[in-house]
Amino acid sequence: MGKKAVLLVNLGTPDSPSTADVRTYLNEFLMDPRVIDINPISRTLLVRGVITPFRAPKSAKLYRAIWDDKTGSPLMHYSLLQQKALQQRLGDEYIVELAMRYQNPSIASALDRLKAALVDDIQVIPLFPQYASASTGSVYDKVMELLSQWPTKPNVSFINSFHDNEGMIATFADNALKHNPQTYDHVLFSFHGLPQRQLVKADHTHLHCLKASDCCQTITEANKFCYSAQSHQTAKLIAEKLNIPKEKYTICFQSRLGSDPWVQPYTSEIVARLAKEGKKSLLVFCPAFVADCLETVYEVTTEYGDEFKALGGEKVQLVESLNDSPIWIDALEKMVREN
Ligand SMILES: C=CC1=C(C)c2cc3[nH]c(cc4nc(cc5[nH]c(cc1n2)c(C)c5CCC(=O)O)C(CCC(=O)O)=C4C)c(C)c3C=C
Ligand SMILES: [Fe+2]
Ligand SMILES: [Fe+2]
């Protein structure tokens, strides 16, 4: 019998925090038509002519602030730990490969290794709990594009989303317990943002998304692939698990890019509002990320932390991501064995 494989795919990170490597990373990432979903000429002008030249030196500075001398980028460090831990759990029955959608290790190199190992079954797990065309959808595209060149196709399956996965919810709840969640004035569930037009595209009925202010409160046939609706569901499940009452938490979206409207409310505005209301301490979950990364370590702890304190707040505490928590590795193992 041939071997089975699991291909874990996260977003990717620059090879180093140098401006040149950050530029290469941003160009590959933002030229993806699923990320900047506008016509190709406008995308090239916008990304190569405006966003990357201005953003690369600024982002490189941020990456330098989070880069560890020994382990490099946190996203890469925790992704490698996840791969290693899952491989140990699954044993010889499976080969577990790690790839990044952008930069290295590339999906192409991981698939080459699986081809050489003569695998006949590949489970692809895009490491994004909530489905978005710009993340999960893009991983599907890349894997299928590369597999289209294989003379013989293996069995291939994809995990579309795991926004309500019991083990994922339990890991975030467990990580929060270390910080005594009940002692904070307010709790934020801050998800990575997405342009609003990408949410609307995921509504096959064209009747639901953003037509009412509460369109994301429950998952229906119309919004089952909606990143925002899935994010609301994840947050509700974590809050329920920790008995955090509705009035004590807010769901919000960070990391906006450009001037188009993104999914709201924006985390920066909520942080400012809570400080003005006199809240002193915030506990922040970032449940769109399976591994701590620039967006959690820097954006939440440093940027929102500084913003909150400048307006009178005292403490912003990040709940660490899933990283290599044994409960999360249990959940990944279960996902693979039950798929
Ligand atoms: C959670 C899944 C993600 C979605 C959906 C997503 C969409 C998305 N992102 C950008 C622009 C940027 N994102 C950046 C960093 C970044 N994004 C994700 C995940 C999702 N992005 C992660 C895990 C990271 C961190 C990577 C790391 O190395 O730690 C960046 C780069 C950093 C910076 O310059 O600020 C940009 C740019 C867009 C435009 C988008 C959807 C349209
Ligand atoms: Fe992003
Ligand atoms: Fe919605």
TrEMBL record:
Record-listed Fe(2+) binding positions: H192, E295
EC number assigned by the record: 4.98.1.1
Compartments in which it is found: Cytoplasm
Domain of life of the native organism: Bacteria
InterPro entries referenced in this protein's UniProt entry, alphabetically: Ferrochelatase, Ferrochelatase_C, Ferrochelatase_N
Keyword set, alphabetical order: Cytoplasm, Heme biosynthesis, Iron, Lyase, Metal-binding, Porphyrin biosynthesis
Biological or metabolic pathway of the protein: Porphyrin-containing compound metabolism; protoheme biosynthesis; protoheme from protoporphyrin-IX: step 1/1
TM region positions: none
Catalytic activity: Fe-coproporphyrin III + 2 H(+) = coproporphyrin III + Fe(2+); heme b + 2 H(+) = protoporphyrin IX + Fe(2+)
Function according to Swiss-Prot or TrEMBL: Catalyzes the ferrous insertion into protoporphyrin IX.
Similarity comment: family membership: Belongs to the ferrochelatase family.
Protein's UniProt name: Ferrochelatase
Organism of derivation: Mucilaginibacter sabulilitoris
